[in-house]
């Protein structure tokens, strides 16, 4: 069997150059594992010919569709730099004996902090305060006051890894209630956080801050449509750092244009990057960031290290700790790949 070889998706050279190399050297090179930047991918989508040059792929935002991994005999693991995998066909990976691993520990706190960054920014009218000051005006020229977080209701659509961390960080701010919608949880699983599980309509209707903390998949695409958004209080704020297509963006824009809600903080979009004529850019009651608000020095370091740990586990013949598609453990192809690496 050839030496364990890792491919790094080429979008790293464009979007994350300088953010991962030191960690790969410290983890992979130190373990005598070779890695390289993969050749250009057509449409940023892997092909079987390219994918099967490697035992592992260190992946940023490339597409792994069914036709891109079909028949891969060598590739054993896709190690995502992050936790979202809406660009990965997990069923196709499982069918071809390929594991998908993510980095939940690395993203937990940076994304939760990003949610609060947007929450404070919209609650304190940060964009407006900045504009007034730069225009040579002063506080008497502000058209509206900000609001406190204390005494407000914080809601989360989804209460997994990031949602739970958000609620942990929320404790000192004195919210009157912490509520979440998550059909996969039972109440006793969030009792220690002081979180109350409620139906989605209740959450949209009663929250002062609606945050989105769910994976994008078939069940969550379009989960929050115009009907749900129209349930929000007129003085409530909407925060999305998860994935754009979970929300009907056109409906959200209409709400913001109508001043039907107080404002929004958006880090993710229906199409990324959004077109230059996106109506969101014209609104003064929304704070926008380029799907990078959680990108800190720490998330870059820890995403890289945790993804390397997933790769190293497979190189030793072990299941990666961040495994998503657990059904792959029963796949004979994957078992054979692990056995071969363990024997090396």
Can you walk me through this structure?
With 344 residues, the protein is α/β, with parallel strands linked by helices. It has two domains: 5-102 and 296-343, Rossmann fold (3-Layer(aba) Sandwich), CATH 3.40.50; 107-288, NAD(P)-binding Rossmann-like Domain (Rossmann fold), CATH 3.40.50. 33% of the residues lie in helices and 13% in strands. The chain has 13 helices and twelve strands. The chain has helices at 12-15, 21-27, 48-51, 66-69, 90-95, 104-123, 126-134, 161-170, 200-206, 226-229, 249-257, 297-315, 332-343; strands spanning 5-8, 34-37, 56-59, 77-80, 99-101, 153-157, 177-181, 196-197, 209-212, 237-240, 263-266, 286-288. Strand 10, helix 11 (249-257) and strand 11 (263-266) form a beta-alpha-beta unit. The model has no long low-confidence stretch (mean pLDDT 97).
Q: What best-fitting shape do the alpha-carbon axes yield?
A: elongated
Helix content: 25-40%
How would you classify the helix and strand content by structural class? Answer: alpha/beta
CATH architecture of the largest domain: 3-Layer(aba) Sandwich
* Broad CATH class of the largest domain: Alpha Beta
Mean pLDDT: 97
Classified in CATH, the superfamily of the largest domain is: NAD(P)-binding Rossmann-like Domain
**CATH topology label of the largest domain:** Rossmann fold
């Amino acid at each position: 069997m050839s030496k364990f070889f890792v491919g790094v998706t080429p979008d790293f050279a464009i979007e994350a150059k300088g953010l991962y190399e030191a960690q790969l050297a410290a983890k992979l090179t130190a373990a005598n594992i070779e890695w390289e930047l993969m050749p250009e991918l057509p449409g940023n989508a892997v092909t079987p010919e390219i994918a099967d040059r490697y035992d592992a792929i260190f992946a940023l935002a490339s597409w792994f569709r069914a036709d891109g991994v079909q028949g891969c005999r060598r590739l054993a693991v896709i190690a995502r730099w992050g936790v979202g995998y809406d660009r990965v066909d997990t069923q196709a990976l499982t069918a071809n004996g390929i594991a998908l691993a993510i980095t939940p520990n690395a993203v937990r706190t940076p994304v939760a902090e990003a949610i609060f960054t947007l929450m404070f920014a919209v609650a304190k009218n940060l964009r407006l305060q900045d504009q007034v000051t730069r225009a040579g005006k002063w506080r008497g020229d502000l058209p509206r006051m900000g609001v406190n977080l204390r005494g407000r209701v914080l809601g989360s659509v989804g209460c997994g890894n990031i949602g739970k961390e958000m609620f942990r960080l929320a404790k000192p701010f004195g919210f009157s209630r912490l509520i979440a919608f998550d059909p996969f949880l039972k109440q006793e699983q969030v009792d220690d956080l002081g979180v109350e599980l409620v139906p989605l309509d209740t959450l949209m209707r009663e929250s002062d801050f609606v945050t989105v903390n769910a994976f994008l998949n078939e069940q969550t695409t379009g989960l929050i449509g115009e009907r749900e958004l129209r349930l929000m209080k007129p003085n409530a704020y909407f925060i999305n750092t998860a994935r754009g297509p979970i929300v009907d963006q056109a409906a959200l824009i209409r709400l913001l244009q109508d001043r039907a809600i107080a404002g929004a903080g958006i880090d993710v979009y229906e199409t990324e990057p959004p077109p230059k004529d996106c109506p969101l850019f014209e609104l003064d009651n929304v704070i926008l960031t380029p799907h990078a608000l959680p990108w800190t020095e720490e998330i870059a370091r820890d995403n890289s290290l945790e993804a390397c740990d997933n790769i190293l586990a497979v190189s030793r013949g072990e299941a990666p700790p961040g495994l998503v598609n657990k059904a792959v453990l029963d796949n004979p192809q994957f078992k054979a790949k692990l056995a071969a690496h363990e024997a090396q």
